[in-house]
Each structure stands twice: as structure tokens, then as C-alpha cells.
Amino acid sequence: MSFSDDQLLDNLKHFHDTLEKVRPSATKGAYLKKLVVSGTMTPGVHVAV
Q: Which residue from 12, 35, 37, 44 has the fewest beta carbons nearer than 10 Å?
């Protein structure tokens, strides 16, 4: 992949923060239960949330 580890981590943090911002206020419990990251035509990698 063309991303360094730090760049990938920054992108994942931004993605997570954006999801938390758009989360409806009435939602209770865990909004994000599972996260899988993959490049184009590559197997997915499960990320601990």
C-alpha cells in the first residue's frame, strides 16, 4: 500500500471521529461494532475498535 503506518492511523482516526460526529444523539450503546479495512482487490483486515 502507498500509505505509511502513521498516515493510515491518521485516516482511521479521522474516519472514526467523523462517524462519532454524525452519530444520532438518540443512539444508545456501541455505534461502531466492527471495522474492516482493505485496499482495492486485497483481503480485509479486522481492526479492533
A: 44
